[in-house]
Specification:
The chain is of the alpha+beta class and about 325 residues long. It has helices spanning about 25-35, 70-85, 105-110, 120, 140-145, 150-155, 170-185, 190-200, 230-240, 255-260, 320-325; strands spanning about 10-15, 40-50, 50-55, 65-70, 225-230, 245, 250, 275, 280, 285-290, 295-300, 305-310. The radius of gyration is 19 Å and the shape is globular. The two termini are about 15 Å apart.
Length: about 325
């Protein structure tokens, strides 16, 4: 890729065939959308070699429309941790989270919590007890978000497993990540992101919701949720595709990008393995949100794919359209 192709101001367009993509790709996507099992897409964006080669919007949506990103925020939180490590706010992935949350007496009362590291919460292996179910279906979420201190409520959960040994997808760990970002940097995740991520990449974002302590979150059960355009989401994927570099500046270390795409733990989810709050499959690694919100990165083909979809259903088929329709048309 020519080094001067950076979408900070906006993306450039190119014809698919100019970038080694079958020109029938858009036609195939439209045909897929007519199938009964269609994902219910709002938008689909394909970036190849730094150019938009396919951009499709459905259900009356347009490039300027933002949609809720759901748990894609977790991958953004992970990105912020990587930036905080590079900038010296966080020592390393293996630093105990206690170092940034010393105000919580739970660490003194329960010294076993001091074994939990930044890496453990990023890989969702903190060991905290978590009942089945995610988001609004998770019975432990309600008492946490109804409390006056979400972080304290998480730290009061039983430690069921030794940290780093068992994977379980849970909101509790993402809440801890947001809290430790604030503890390490003195800024909320949103404030830190605005300076070190959003503004450098030219990403347009509204203010993120926050908990009673001012820690950023994206729990949509009590707020409208964070909405981004497909083009802004693609910039995050492009940052990772370029190994953390943006316009000649290393935003986060290349080694951290590699950690994010390392398949730390196998899951029984169709997204595959779990890295540092990024999902890792055979074809690509991705940031995923409930209902079909996806940023997929395929370094081998120099591709970023973004999908946004109707999140009223969990029956997302974004993985099908990426694997079965898009990637086969890219040489």
């Amino acid at each position: 890729m020519p080094p001067d192709i950076w979408p900070t101001q906006d993306w450039q367009n190119a014809r698919p065939e100019e970038q080694g993509i079958d020109p029938r790709l858009a036609e195939k996507i439209d045909a897929y959308m007519r199938l009964p099992e269609s994902i219910g897409l709002y938008s689909l964006l394909v970036i190849r070699n730094g150019y938009i080669v396919c951009e499709r919007y459905f259900a009356g949506c347009s490039p300027s429309d933002g949609h809720q990103i759901k748990s894609v925020i977790k991958s953004i939180f992970s990105t912020l941790v990587g930036i905080a490590i590079k900038e010296g706010f966080i020592e390393s992935l293996d630093t105990p989270i206690y170092h940034y949350l010393k105000q919580y007496e739970q660490f003194q009362r329960r010294p076993e919590l001091k074994r939990i590291t930044v890496r453990h919460v990023l890989t969702m292996t903190s060991g905290f007890y978590w009942q089945l179910g995610v988001h609004a279906h998770q019975p432990l979420v309600t008492p946490i978000i109804n409390s006056t201190d979400w972080t304290a409520s998480v730290l009061n959960l039983p430690l069921q497993d030794s940290p780093g040994t068992k994977w379980a997808y849970k909101e509790a760990d993402s809440m801890l990540i947001s809290a430790l970002i604030r503890g390490a940097t003195g800024k909320s995740a949103y404030e830190f992101a605005r300076r070190y991520l959003l503004e450098p990449l030219g990403m347009q974002s509204p203010v993120w919701p926050s908990d009673p302590q001012g820690n950023s979150h994206n729990y949509v059960g009590i707020s409208p949720g964070l909405a981004l355009t497909a083009r802004s989401m693609a910039k995050l994927g492009y940052l990772f595709l370029r190994d953390g570099q943006w316009e000649g500046k290393q935003i986060l270390n290349q080694s951290y990008v590699q950690e994010c795409r390392t398949p730390y733990f196998a899951t029984n989810w169709r997204e595959g393995h779990y890295g540092l709050m990024w999902w890792v499959s055979d074809d690509y690694y991705s940031a995923n949100g409930f209902g079909g919100q996806t940023i997929a990165v395929n370094p081998a083909k120099d591709v970023v794919v973004v999908t946004q979809a109707n999140s009223d259903t969990r029956k997302s088929k974004s993985y099908d359209v990426i694997r079965s329709v898009i990637l086969p048309f890219i040489k």
